[in-house]
Design a protein that fits this description.
alpha/beta; Rossmann fold; 5 strands
Length: about 140
């Protein structure tokens, strides 16, 4: 697999540290991929944020949602999932910060698409999403 680009989505106020750790670990894991973090690192006015994030998501192969315990208040995450689906970008989640299968999920993310933070499972999910959605048509380029 070539180096897939992933948009990392999270509830920034509570899960920023987990996001930073996830991105750092992905660069040093023994899994056969690189995650390029294309998420927004700063606050923008709403209209600029929406345009920027939609464009970044569209240029990615997947959206990885870091599912923490505060997803009920994560309206931005729900928007990012919606935009990914509108652009046929596959989405999956990874539990972080002691979230479990009983934790609230953001709107649009199926529980069957959320996995534990284990790099072999993440690698398998990335392999899977590289055959889904818009990746079906670009797979031949990798």
């Amino acid at each position: 697999m070539a180096d897939p680009r992933a948009f990392i989505s999270c509830e920034f106020d509570h899960d920023e540290a987990a996001r930073n750790l996830f991105v750092r670990q992905s660069k040093h894991s023994k899994t056969p991929f690189n995650i390029e973090d294309w998420s927004s690192k700063q606050t923008w006015p709403q209209s600029q944020w929406e345009k920027l994030i939609k464009d970044k998501i569209n240029r990615c192969h997947m959206v990885i949602v870091l599912v923490g315990k505060h997803m009920a208040s994560a309206s931005g995450v729900a928007k990012e999932i919606k935009w990914a689906k509108e652009q046929d970008v596959p989405v999956f989640g990874v539990y972080v910060n002691d979230a479990t299968s009983s934790s609230t999920l953001p709107e649009g993310l199926a529980r069957s698409r959320v996995i534990p933070w284990e790099w072999d499972k993440i690698a398998s999910m990335i392999d899977q999403v590289m055959t889904e959605g818009k990746n079906k048509s670009v797979k031949s380029f990798f």
